[in-house]
Request: fold
Amino acid sequence: MCLQVTNLPPTKTPRPRAEKPYRTLPDSAFIPSMMMPNALFAALLLLSFPPSPALASSDWPWWRGPNHDGSTAADAAPPTVFGEDSGIQWSVPIPGRGHGSACVAGDRVYLATADESTQIQAMHGFERATGKLLWTTVIHEKGLTQKINKKASWASVTPAFDGERVYINFLSGDAVYTTALDLDGKKLWQTKITDYLEHQGYGSSPAIHGDLVIVSADNKGVTGGAVCGLDRKTGEVKWRHARAALPNYASPVVLEVAGKTQLFLTGLEKVTSLDPLTGKVNWEIAGATTECVTTTPTDGRHIYSSGGYPKNHVAAIAADGSGKVVWETNDRVYVPSMLVKDDRLYATMDSGVALCLDAATGKELWKGRLGGNFSASPVLVGDHIHAVSESGDYFIFKADPAGLEILAKNKVGDEVYATPSIAGKQIFLRVADYEGEKRSERLVCFGE
Reply:
């Protein structure tokens, strides 16, 4: 990896407009509990990718973080001891329900929400230093009409940031749309990706690559799904690749593997590699189950697929176009995405068991029980893994092939489905609390 040091473009101070193109909630609805110092900026770019906006090492700009693989920047130093009443820099209530993670960029934090009581899907922009609400933009209204899984939400997507715009995908009515906002929350464009029919919900997050934002919407509708490359500035569809009419939930990811930049999608009973600039197929093999949720990581030679329906599997696929499935196990890693560290594959299984495999051979090195059930994906911070259960237990354990060593266990809330966004010295986490049967959500910033 090579680093290029530059500055993020300055963020604008929200200012009154004669005609508001979006709806704003009062600041009093979001009251931060504590203050924190501003983050320092140092830029990070992967040289192997086409020119893209500069990213600060103190950012978490999209799903699976700055490196697209669930790992933080090298200089990340989040706290290890915190909880419901400790280590909180600020905490703000969030209307409705969502399982998407926070997008952290510069001095802003962006989050998608959906409120079934008002039938609104929206984006919120917060001040990173205090949690103060800067703006709320309503993206869709009255579109929460399909039946979804009880563990799903209408806002399960993590926004993506490109230095100038924020992108979000929503299922609204019978179709999936991508919307671009400026840093003040103004809608810039909205593009329909495809019609959508699904029994579980939708949760595919956008990926930034060069001048494109890449989005997908696999589903079992009559016309099937699609993965598209959209012009970041205009929303114009630059390329479209049709997908089979089967249910699937994985997000697209662009990785440098086997000496080539490739766009990967798993599921639909296939593992697919596309050229991210054109959408043309590099290679495609029968190598996954029908339904996948996880985002594949890589060790530079292989990519790793996992799924849970109609069968459980974890598999290593050679990414050189040979079509070789190098190894496969029947472990159930259905929802949480996996991590690669020093030729080892780490996972938190849905059932609350941590798993370590040899990435080259698939040999099981160890399994260890954490407890509870997991939907959130683990995050790699140096040689530590952060993983939070559905019941709000936040574990930190070593990425060590010798065995499971739990370093910390912190209680952060009553319920957590969202993956932590770890940026610099901070952890941004969406948590839910219960007061009797009443459920409410907060966005919490943990830090020293």
Summary: The chain has one domain: 27-447. Confidence is low (pLDDT under 50) at residues 1-52. Residues 27-447 form a domain with the Methylamine Dehydrogenase; Chain H fold (CATH 2.130.10.10). The chain is about 0% helix and 40% strand.
